[in-house]
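Hi L., both proteins are below.
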Amino acid sequence: IMLKLAIAGAAGRMGGALIHAAERTDGVAVSVALEHPASSSLGKDAGAVAGVGALGVPIRAAKPEADSSPADRFNVDFAFDILLEFTTPQATMEHVHACRRARRGMVIGTTGMTDAEQQRIRQAAADIPIVLAANTSVGINLCLALLATAGKVLAGDPQYDVEVLEAHHRNKVDAPSGTALLLAQAVAAPLGKQLKQDGVFARHGHTGARKAGSIGFSTIRGGDIAGEHTVMFIGDGERLEITHKATDRRIFADGAIKAAKWLANQQAGMFTMQDVLGLSADNR
């Protein structure tokens, strides 16, 4: 049985990577391609725009009007099984609402969402299966498993300070990255720390000595960096660094396709890439 995928932001860089990934994966096909109503790519073939050749799937507008019906929102009669959503928080919330009403699953990789928006996604997961992942690469999710262990051993030792360094392309609009927050949370959670209280997101001027137990963040934006993250455990006389460097967006797209295939066999609920890869606490 062919798994039918909808791609939000189909004309963008990530949308194109998702279309490429779907085309090189057996058992899946892109059946719906969505873009914002003002996109210059509306009406064009999604495969041609992505550079994989014509797919016979035109890029259509996802209508954001609050009073439109679910079918009108996507204008495609929901001819898909799973929606892959890597766009903006506003568009993601519209798509969550529509997919919940139409009972379609979602893989959400959108970052920069507020706590309230994430809560709305959790509420929707009572009715549909959702994978919510700040990063869908296999490598990052292996890093999360390593960090959970390192955090228990090192982050609870006052001799070690924890710093998170992340770098992305010049067009990324949120900081720190969702992945940086995810990695830091993997360290903080076993120790009962909360990033809102223990995270240090900016340093400027006379900051005073470093607060014990805090987790610092540093952000780099420039060029076409796909994504680099390093978590440092800095002690007296030694430093442990766990680093992941992405050189191609295809790793995120491949992970998203993997998540979609896994999600197709799940009932309603909220899941992460740790669940998809069998790395969650329940599976270890």
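That was the first. Here is the second:
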Amino acid sequence: MQAAILLAAIALTATPEHLHWTVDDTKREALVYAPRGKTTEPAPLVFVFHGHGGSSKNADRSFHLEDVWPEAIVVYPQGLNTPTRIDPQGKRPGWQISAGAQDDRDLKLFDDMLATIKEKYRVDENRIYATGHSNGAIFTYLLWSTHPDLFAAVAPSSAPRGQVELSKPLPVFHVAGVQDRIAPFALQQATLADVRKLNGCSDKGTEWAPGCTSYPSKAGTPLVAFIHPGGHVFPKEAPALIVRFFQEHARDVAADSRPR
């Protein structure tokens, strides 16, 4: 009996596939989790980007979205060494923070990953999402900017939008710590104000979950702000809240087809 239980537990344990790409002669990689069990339905697709100095494995341990949302395809890409304000020599891995930076190597990787995942798995085109922490959050904002008609929602954590210009409303779940010294809370508050304005959100928020305030939008593009008392960290409660938010939002194809 114990052996049978052990085998069942092993069978239910998610195991990632290591996928590889060559982008401008540079080898790139990602950990990819496919939905568990047999299904004929197209699956949601979530891209998760680690922070500067992190890794795909670190992001997997922190977000573990494949555990929270086993019906989804979850992709954890690996960044390359990238110069930043706190790492000017670029000794640690991260992501470009603006269009054109590093010859758009990470935007090219994203496009290649998306094409491969669509070829390899059945993807629900109306349920594609991106999330990330710190430098990965800025890249999430950049993806929203450069792929305005792709995502159903995004969930940046612990970063302002930086130099990224946003033009199309999108449901957003943003995580911020009031004691953040790396991505100052005041800068993140400014980003939240910009998002509320772009999304046409109400200035009055309501509780969506403990610590989370929802700013509704008549256009169906709300902002939920998860403000926690800590610093530059990814709270343990965040994965389940992000998944809940993503599950509440699918891309509005009818709205995308309307003239702007």
